[in-house]
């Protein structure tokens, strides 16, 4: 009896569907091209440009910090990192087209959380580590920067004191990848991709 009722409901549902009326439905004159241009021009591109700007600012402050490693420059770098991560959150849904990197969507590559502290520490000590040819997602991106500049239960003074040349080089390497990634994404969006 149950099967008969289910089968009858399925038949009624299929019979009640009629494709002939789709042209008379409200909204059938919807212009998809205009909508996509509007979303790209007024939402995606401005958000990626904000992210690019905040990553460039973070990169500049990271260079200052690595040249003059003190708590004041650490604080300035942290403020810039917070802005970059906030801007990243506004763009994380746009991981298609230019937002697609070799290892996946930009958010899936540069926004991985948690990071692998063990791998990061090992990479810093490995003179042959090659980030562009690494398939590890948990050793790069925004949250690797967070790990390096916030430490793990360390005071600001301890973080600054522990920033040896290996840590500085790794931080600069991560920021270089972030900067080049968003410079490329914005250039592609502002180039032919939007059209």
Task: Set down the secondary structure blueprint.
Layout: H1 2-16, H2 32-67, H3 71-91, E1 100-101, E2 104-105, H4 106-110, H5 117-125, H6 142-150, H7 156-161, H8 165-193
Helix pairs in contact: 2-3, 2-8, 3-6, 6-8
Overall mean pLDDT stands at 90
Mass-distribution shape: elongated
Largest sheet geometry? 2 strands, antiparallel
The SS-based structural class is mainly alpha
User: How do the SSEs run, as a string of H and E?
Assistant: HHHEEHHHHH
Total number of helices: 8
* Number of distinct beta strands: 2
Strand order in the sheet with the most strands: 1-2
* Strand residues, percent: under 5%
Residue share in helix: 55-70%
Taking the alpha carbons of the first and last residues, their distance comes to 57 Å
Poorly predicted tracts of residues: none
| Cα-based radius of gyration, to the nearest Å | 24 Å
Structural commentary:
The chain has helices spanning 2-16, 32-67, 71-91, 106-110, 117-125, 142-150, 156-161, 165-193; strands at 100-101, 104-105. The chain is mostly helical and 195 residues long. A two-stranded antiparallel sheet has the order 1-2. A hairpin with a 2-residue loop joins strand 1 and strand 2. The termini are far apart.
Give a brief description.
The protein is built from eight helices and two strands; from the N terminus they run H-H-H-E-E-H-H-H-H-H. By secondary structure, it is mainly α. The chain has a two-stranded antiparallel ribbon with strand order 1-2.
